[in-house]
Amino acid sequence: MSRLPRVDEMNNVLEELSRQHLKGKVRALRLSLMALLTGGHILLEDIPGLGKTTMALAFAGALGLSFGRVQCTSDLLPSDITGLSVFDRETGRFNFIKGPVFNNIVLVDEINRAMPKTQSALLEAMEERRVTVEGVTYRLPEPFLVLATQNPVEQVGTYPLPESQMDRFLIKTGIGYPPEEIEKGILRQGSIRDEILHIPSLVTHEELVDAIGTVKKDVYVGEKVTDYVYAIIKATRNYPLIQAGLSTRGGIGMVDAAKAAAYLNGRDFVAPEDVRDVAHAVCPHRLIFRPEHEGVDKEQILNAILKEIPLPLT
């Protein structure tokens, strides 16, 4: 097994952030980095006040990436995200004013409060890495990560994301309450927002691009692992309670996430354990249950599916 380039730098980002600034958020940080390394996006579903915005700011700062924020409301327009053309009287021409989506890390706060038309404005950006305004196409910066949040408790005045848009998120997870001692420390220390704004970059842009290229091209996925992924996909499609199981895109997402997990573990090949470990972050939000079973615990069903499929020996 050859030594993977930049893996120490990437793990150092996670270690420094979780040790100094974002204690108790190790899993959410790791999953966010995995999404960035694979070109995917992440949806954080949790109640307000647990540090989702602070985490996004710190994450962007430590990676030396530009940061944009969109606070979703019912009157938010697509142009508030993508930008718009403004007429310049002096030149007699329209100038395009870029919106917050033209940043490396874009925090879309409370995405389910935006109108469906505005939510759909994110689709092209998330999938194609570009936006089209008035017939002109503009490329988005690389790397590019949408980090969206939504409150799973309060549903008044919200517009649930359709399945087609949920599928655009590689990973869906939460942050959760921090452990008791860590939370007590946070209470003593108070807000660290000012400190977060001055976090120095821990990696160069070249190092980050190298890491992304390594995950994409140099982490090997063997036949046994592919068979294991397909077995999970097939099982979700045949499970009695599930109306629509994992799509091919969902399977690709599972492989991509497993490649990022293998890379951060210092390996240049994906093990079946990597697939199993990322399944709970990649699969549940893609499963569509039959109407009479919509209230079931998706995590519990996925656990049952995974238990029925033995890990292949590699």
Automatic annotation (TrEMBL):
Keywords: ATP-binding, Nucleotide-binding. InterPro entries: AAA+_ATPase, ATPase_AAA-3, CbbQ/NirQ/NorQ/GpvN, ChlI/MoxR_AAA_lid, P-loop_NTPase. One of its GO terms (molecular function) is ATP hydrolysis activity. Residues 38-179 form the AAA+ ATPase domain. The keyword Nucleotide-binding applies. PANTHER family: METHANOL DEHYDROGENASE REGULATOR, MOXR FAMILY PROTEIN. This is MoxR family ATPase. It comes from Citrifermentans bemidjiense (strain ATCC BAA-1014 / DSM 16622 / JCM 12645 / Bem).
